[in-house]
Amino acid sequence: MQATDGTAILDRDGLDALVAVLEADGRTVVGPTVRDGAVVLAPLDSADDLPWGWGTELEAGRYRLVRRTDEAAFSHTSGPQSWKTFLHPQREKLWEAERDAEGRLSMQSAQREQPSYAFLGVRPCDLRAIAIQDRVLAGGHFKDDGYAERRRGAFLIAVECTEPGATCFCLSMGSGPAADAGYDLAFTELVDADRHRFLVRSGSPEGARILARVPHEEGDSTTVETARSAVDAARDHMGRTMPPIDLRTLMGESLEAERWDDVADRCLTCGNCTMVCPTCFCTTTEDVTDLTGDHAERWQRWDSCFDLDFSHLQGGAVRATPRSRYRQWLTHKLSTWHEQFDSTGCVGCGRCITWCPVGIDITEEVTALAEEAKP
């Protein structure tokens, strides 16, 4: 077999060695693992913590963890978390203030040294989501310093998709199933009767440096072609699809569509879709004090446009109905996001479909809007 420059092959021991190398460099390695009946993201002690042999069954409003017939580590779909849980945490202290016995007030930032993360198992759709949040939270005039610092030190190991789930539609959004940019290392997992292996390619100088320290074989043309074919085949097995139209224009022209009433009758405005979405970034701030009133803190926490108070101004909420709040979320995600950040806000991961308690399907809603808009 002919060697292929720039690629390597790792086995299970090699994957464990990679985790050890990253930890030796002082990084906190985070990846998928099984807990509480789901595949969740958590710090890993070793590659043994990965969900070997576990898969998932998905549908709108439904998620099940199932045993596979092989020992694949990454043949599951996205769980309820995304990597924003670590880069843009749910709750973060911004500053604190103290009043001493003489009544003098002192304030100090709560910024602390941020962890150096290595994310193992980042799906291509989530790579795109991280790139979108980079622009939102670290690329404008009002940067989130905590996010920028955590992101600056993050090492991203992508895993290409060969088995998309029933709620996946990344192909429609141009964000998968192949990893094309934004990673330090990219894996393609291959499991056959003879061997379980990972084809690896580096996407940055740091990725190449780390890979050189891990025992591996040189990639060969047969393995490269097998991996490419597996990823290409995934394109034909997407569980969902968006209608092939200009979504930005459709949403802008559908503000008075009757379909919003239909979805409003089903939507609980619980905000699950925004919590699991890898690109939703909205926050609010909370000020708290102790019982003496001498110590105060300001915290930033996630918020949702589905919260009635999210748009509250003097006189009441701007978006008081479920119809207006769902319309705001979907229109911003697919249309006005372009005006703010020059891209869509959706990456086609399907989490909002899977984790909606009443099974509202974003692709179904957009298709219905497109049908209604036809002359």
- Count of individual domains: 2
Q: Give the oligomeric state.
A: single chain
Q: Give the amount of beta strand, in percent.
A: 25-35%
C-alpha geometry = globular
Computed CA radius of gyration, to the nearest angstrom: 22 Å
Could you describe the 3D structure shown?
The chain has 375 residues and is of the alpha+beta class. The protein has 2 domains: 3-101 and 112-237, no CATH class; 247-373, no CATH class. It has 12 helices and 16 strands. The strands form 4 sheets. An 8-stranded mixed β-sheet has the order 3-2-8-9-10-11-1-12, with helices on both faces. Strands 7-6-14-13 form a 4-stranded antiparallel β-sheet, with no helix packed on it. The chain has a two-stranded antiparallel ribbon with strand order 4-5. Helix 8 (259-266) packs across helix 10. The longest helix has 20 residues, at 322-341. It is globular. The chain starts with a strand and ends with a helix.
Based on the model shown, name its key terms:
single chain; 375 residues; alpha+beta; 8-stranded mixed sheet; 4-stranded antiparallel sheet; 12 helices; globular
Short précis:
The chain has 375 residues and is α+β, with helices and mostly antiparallel strands. The chain has two domains: 3-101 and 112-237, no CATH class; 247-373, no CATH class.
